[in-house]
Amino acid sequence: MGGDVALVFAGGDRPPDAVTARLPDDAVVIAADSGLDHAVALGFAIDLVVGDLDSVDPRLLASARAAGTTVETHPREKDETDLELALGAALARGARTVTVVGGAGGRLDHFLANLTVLASPRFRELRLDAWVGFAHVTVVRDDVVVEGRVGALVSLVPLGGRATGIRTEGLRYPLADEDLEAGTTRGVSNELLVPSARVRIRTGTLLVIAPEALEEP
Length: 217
What we know:
Layout: E1 5-9, E2 28-32, H1 35-41, E3 48-51, H2 58-66, E4 70-73, H3 82-92, E5 97-101, H4 108-118, E6 127-132, E7 135-140, E8 143-147, E9 153-158, E10 163-169, E11 176-180, E12 190-191, E13 196-200, E14 206-210
Parallel strand pairs: 1-2, 1-5, 2-3, 3-4, 5-6
Antiparallel strand pairs: 6-7, 7-14, 8-13, 9-12, 9-14, 10-11, 10-13
């Protein structure tokens, strides 16, 4: 199993059905534990299930095994979350672009840890984004195009240290070769002035978060 593009389904609350239209249909699909439940519910065939499998629906897991899905079982006493294991599996299988789906709700510590793992130096070779509930999160280490309706909120959150040389185009509150320190809220609640904006950085890591990227039904 290999491919340049991977989908990783995480646990937590079930993702909105509307996210399906935003996902690639030719990706390797990896489920992190109970992410299997969400992948099946959204109609995806799964290539790999990975994790300690303490929260996955056992009937769905049995069906996946019967369908030929690879299952990698890890002990509960492990040093990585199931999502980190799944991202590592995607990287090991040659993925260069990875979209994570899920992860909203559930335990607060898991949620925060899974957001920060997206910005881990371990995954710096990946183009990473995530759909978390109705929000879209993009990990930026160089530049990214941010798409959405005019007036939609966009927040720039530095992780792991200072993000330097930030330049934005198409946002209400522009940054022109400026820095954001980790822990600052200066980048929170910006807005799109155009349907397709741009964010560039020179060094560091930003999470570019569009909290209303999917419209609620």
